[in-house]
């Protein structure tokens, strides 16, 4: 790893305190449970009670990442950038980062802002922090990057079983956990696949178009990475391939799109998916789509336990649409993976609710929104 490498110095995760099994939702909606479990690949969706929304999730995850970093000798005075990727903004003007800065008492000589591009916003905030460090403008300062969302669809919307929530925090500076390669592979095309007009509480979705856009973005970004080399050899060199996870079946479709594009046999594509992709989604299946945080939850799972020098790829997708493929190299802090404890603690503390509780929760939200 080069002496000037930039990356993740500290990593933390947080899931909110409620969850609903998709089978419960299926019963409530009169759907076949297998449609949600096998058809979409979902298990449980994380949900936020009224007193634990995006600000509380962001503050909790940020405190975890900072405490871990400080225990390793980090100093909060070095934070000169607070970037928050989210599509759960509370205000059209005031950035979510200002709410978070209030909660963390962060003020002074720092840039603090929110980044919006659907599920791609967290990755954009991370890339800005990485490029700020690489440019030299950061000097010895570090960035605190957060990706936090609560994904809710209208009740009975086809997207409802894919709902979720979660938050990821990364201190961007020395690559103790993972180095992030300076070169990445973006692709964007304007589309109305999933969007939420100003003033509306829930997204509008063109389901089939969103699937097609995602698959197209996967193919284009991976073509950017592979170039004129042998795709199987290039991807085979990665320990894991992580994807934005709107629901696990979408990721499988993306991988099979790659297989088709690169001319692999079905068996080879299935083996790649089984060995390098499916295991990264273990935690995503427990929290559902956490929008900006989804990819980084998969990355956290993939990095956990890696030896320094092992590499992973990370495909980010945000509707609208924008995508980017990053590559990371595990640092010495990946093997111990202290962020596993975040997931274990949150899973142990969270309450699985019934379909009746869920109906009441949604009703309370609509009253609060009025
Ligand atoms: P749908 O149209 O109700 O579902 O909702 P379907 O009829 O397509 O069925 C889904 C799958 O279940 C199919 O599998 C069925 O065959 C299967 P496939 O053929 O596709 O492999 N199925 C069953 N399997 C077993 N037993 C059964 C059974 N019945 C059916 N009994 C849809 C699907 C994706 C449209 C919906 O969930 C949705 O609108 N989701 C939200 C949009 C979305 O997630 N799009 C993904 C790409 S866009 C993205 O990733 C960005 C996003 O994260 C937002 C952002 O960027 O901010 C969403």
Give the SSE map:
Layout (H helix, E strand, L loop, with lengths): L6 E8 L3 E4 H8 L3 H7 L4 E4 L6 H18 L7 E7 L10 H9 L6 E5 L5 H15 L6 E10 L12 E10 L4 E3 L4 E4 L5 E2 L8 E2 L1 H20 L4 H6 L3 E4 L4 H15 L3 H12 L6 H4 L6 H10 L7 E8 L3 E9 L9 H10 L1 E2 L2 H15 L1
Helix pairs in contact: 1-2, 3-4, 6-8, 8-9
The structure holds 3-hydroxy-3-methylglutaryl-coenzyme A.
Explain the overall architecture.
This protein has 370 residues and is α/β, with parallel strands linked by helices. It folds into two domains: 205 residues, Peroxisomal Thiolase, Chain A, domain 1 (3-Layer(aba) Sandwich), CATH 3.40.47.10; 146 residues, Thiolase/Chalcone synthase (Peroxisomal Thiolase, Chain A, domain 1). The strands form three sheets. Strands 1, 4, 5, 6, 7, 8, 9, 12, 13 and 14 form a ten-stranded mixed sheet that branches. A hairpin with a 3-residue loop joins strand 13 and strand 14. Helix 1 crosses helix 2 and helix 3 crosses helix 4. The protein is globular and about 55 Å long. The protein starts with 6 loop residues before the first strand and ends with a helix. The model has no long low-confidence stretch (mean pLDDT 97). The structure holds 3-hydroxy-3-methylglutaryl-coenzyme A (HMG).
């Amino acid at each position: 790893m080069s002496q000037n490498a930039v990356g993740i110095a500290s990593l933390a995760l947080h899931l909110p305190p409620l969850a609903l099994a998709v089978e419960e939702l299926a019963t409530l909606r009169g759907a076949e449970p297998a449609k949600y479990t096998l058809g979409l690949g979902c298990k449980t969706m994380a949900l936020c009670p009224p007193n634990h929304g995006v600000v509380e999730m962001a503050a909790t995850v940020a405190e975890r990442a900072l405490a871990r970093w400080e225990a390793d000798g980090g100093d909060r005075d070095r934070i000169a950038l607070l970037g928050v990727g989210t599509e759960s903004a509370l205000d059209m003007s005031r950035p979510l980062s200002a709410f978070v800065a209030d909660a963390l008492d962060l003020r002074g000589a720092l840039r603090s802002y929110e980044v919006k591009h659907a599920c791609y916003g967290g990755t954009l905030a991370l890339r800005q922090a990485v490029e700020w460090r690489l440019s030299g403008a950061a000097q010895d300062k570090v960035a605190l990057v957060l990706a936090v969302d609560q994904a809710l669809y209208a009740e009975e919307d086809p997207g409802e079983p894919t709902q979720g929530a979660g938050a990821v925090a990364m201190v961007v500076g020395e690559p103790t956990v993972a180095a992030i390669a300076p070169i990445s592979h973006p692709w964007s095309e304007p589309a109305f696949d999933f969007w939420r007009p100003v003033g509306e509480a829930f997204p509008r979705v063109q389901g089939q178009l969103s699937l097609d856009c995602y698959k197209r973005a996967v193919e284009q970004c991976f073509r950017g990475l592979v170039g004129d080399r042998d795709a199987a050899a290039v991807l085979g060199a990665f320990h894991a391939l992580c994807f934005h996870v709107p629901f696990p079946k979408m990721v499988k479709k993306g991988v099979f799109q790659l297989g088709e594009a690169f001319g692999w046999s079905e068996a080879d594509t299935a083996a790649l998916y089984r060995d390098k992709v499916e295991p990264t989604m273990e935690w995503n299946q427990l929290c559902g789509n956490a929008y900006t945080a989804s990819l980084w939850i998969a990355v956290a799972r993939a990095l956990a336990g890696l030896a320094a020098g092992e590499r992973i790829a990370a495909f980010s997708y945000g509707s609208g649409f924008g995508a980017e493929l990053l590559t990371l190299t595990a640092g010495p802090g990946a093997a111990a993976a202290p962020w596993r404890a975040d997931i274990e603690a949150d899973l142990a503390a969270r309450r699985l609710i019934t379909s009746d509780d869920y109906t009441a929760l949604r009703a309370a939200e609509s009253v609060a929104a009025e």
